[in-house]
């Protein structure tokens, strides 16, 4: 009887913790930008992939304002150097590297170069599953000083998504890159574990965890999610 009571108390305490953390996380996600205190990343190293254009270039400009040492990766050497030139008056150190991120060998060799040429570098990039695994590993290692932020934006108004359309522009608009950069910067500087843009996506994530597949497909049809790529052409101008 005593063992059952202890187990019940342990479960109750765990449930309360889950509810409180979920409540705090929900409030934190819904707060307007600028409310939460921001951490300083001045002097820290920021590695940005795809820095030669679009969102990557805007991120480089924003984190230069924050005083970061920038490590810029892109397959487009000319575009990457143009980004570096734009940052010339910022006063921060900028290192550029040309590589194809689809080739593991190039990633590994470039990472070795970065280790030799830059004081310290840590890149946190990956899909949702990878981020969850990484967070678990860091918790296991008690690496509380290493923070990760998972960014899940909707389609962005850059060449990468040319031709993409949205059936519901009110709740699922095509995002302007400047707004996405603002949201990412806010999330990183306030140590948010995850940011979904626009915020409506938080609801879809929550419902996705509890709704049956058929119900999710009905909602996908309603919002036109399955037709968004029908006229996609992308940067190469080739229709999908």
UniProtKB/TrEMBL annotation:
Lineage: superkingdom: Eukaryota
InterPro entries on file: NAD(P)-bd_dom_sf, Sc_DH/Rdtase_CS, SDR_fam
An annotated Gene Ontology molecular function: oxidoreductase activity, acting on the CH-OH group of donors, NAD or NADP as acceptor
GO cellular component, one term: lipid droplet
Record protein name field: Dehydrogenase
């Amino acid at each position: 009887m005593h063992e059952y009571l202890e187990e019940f108390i342990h479960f109750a305490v765990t449930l309360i913790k889950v509810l409180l953390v979920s409540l705090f996380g929900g409030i934190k996600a819904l707060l307007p930008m600028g409310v939460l205190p921001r951490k300083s990343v001045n002097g820290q190293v920021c590695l940005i992939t795809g820095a030669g254009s679009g969102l990557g270039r805007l991120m480089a400009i924003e984190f230069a304002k924050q005083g970061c040492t920038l490590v810029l990766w892109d397959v487009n050497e000319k575009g990457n150097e143009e980004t570096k030139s734009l940052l010339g008056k910022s006063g921060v150190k900028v290192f550029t590297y040309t590589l194809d991120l689809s080739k593991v060998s190039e990633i590994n060799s470039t990472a070795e170069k970065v280790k030799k040429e830059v004081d310290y570098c840590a890149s946190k990039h990956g899909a949702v599953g990878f981020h969850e695994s990484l967070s678990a590993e860091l918790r296991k290692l008690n690496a509380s000083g290493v923070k990760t932020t998972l960014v899940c934006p909707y389609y962005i108004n850059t060449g990468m998504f040319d031709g993409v359309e949205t059936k519901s522009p009110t709740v699922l608009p095509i995002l302007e890159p400047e707004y996405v950069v603002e949201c990412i910067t806010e999330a990183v500087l306030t140590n948010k574990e995850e940011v979904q843009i626009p915020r409506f996506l938080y609801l879809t994530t929550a419902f996705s965890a509890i709704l049956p597949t058929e119900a999710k497909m009905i909602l996908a049809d309603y919002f036109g999610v399955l037709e968004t790529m029908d006229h996609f052409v992308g940067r190469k101008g080739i229709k999908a």
